[in-house]
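Data's thin. Show one?
=====
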Amino acid sequence: MSQANEITCHKCGKKKIKPNYKPNSTGLEFCSTECFYTWYETSSEQDKIDEGWVCGRPSLLKDRWQEFKDVILNERLYPQDLANRFDIKKTTAMWNRRKVLEENSIDSSKYNSEVKRENYIPKLSKETYLKCYRSGYWDFDKNKWVKARNDKELAKSLGASIPEFDRGRRYYKIKKAREDIPPGLDVKGKKFNLLRPVKLIRIDEQKKDLGKYLWLCKCDCGNECEKTSGSLKNHHHNSNIKNSCGCENKKHARWEALDINARHFSRIKCGAKKRGLEFDITPEFVDQLYKKQEKKSGISGKAIVMPGKVGVGSGLAQCPSDNKDNIASLDRIDSSKGYTIDNVWWISRRENSCKMDLSIEDVEQFFKDGYEYLKKSRKIRKAISKGVF
């Protein structure tokens, strides 16, 4: 160089003045980037070495070149960590690493991805994710389900970007939060027969599915009881009795001990109410009356049976007997009075249909006249059938 800031281009031979220029260690100067790349691409590796061009300081790795190659192929280090291990500059490490990758036909972009993945350290700790990044939960103080915050809200509250937050979650293998309320907690506000869940008492994680949620429930009768979500939702599969605090069970046990069923008695009571008749009898009374009559009609003495308890209908339409005329029917002895203790008895449905609103005296007179006229009545029927009457 003729002057401190004047250089001669190694490629084209032109001279150029560069202010504040510091000569490099190779001794090769270029007037422009185009000249350098033209020379670099057209020259072989041996020509570059012969001309004194040293790139990446390979001389520093001569003794440790094999070790350097093994580290590149077997480990995934950041360029600065690689440079620190071999006590070289970062640019030297990158240049030699690229050379090793080219010799072994390894894609540099995939290699860099592996380096980032294996050396990645999340900004947030795993404890931070487990503490704040969870699914919705039941707030016992507020007695309601609280939905989980989404990734955007959590990342903002923790001072991290959404991609960085999501990458850390995947690194720790933490599943995404579920927004849906679990099946056992969706019973609040609903009604199950006579019960309405009002407050969640506890969640027993040792139990499974719906059985781990225990609710305080209020019954229509005014009492309170504790029921699991499974007991509330699946009660109709296990019992024909309405779900209650136990009051319905007592009613059911009451009717189980009686021959008359609730539907039959309710029909009798409702019919009396519609017609404005007095009604002061109880299921226990009519059941005892039925047994005192030895389960026989009070008029004819024939055996009568109570309507069956199985089936849908008024009760009178259901009967375990093939002879429907033998169904027991509660009759008022004096049709002008109501259903009172001193005015009811059991007869058959057919007899009750015939009696209608007749008094018992009229019925007795009907039977008496019929019996006395029976012989003559038979002769008349016979003559009529022969056509000679």
Q: What stands out?
A: The chain has four domains: 58-118, 126-171, 183-254, 258-357. Residues 309-322 have pLDDT under 50 and may be disordered.
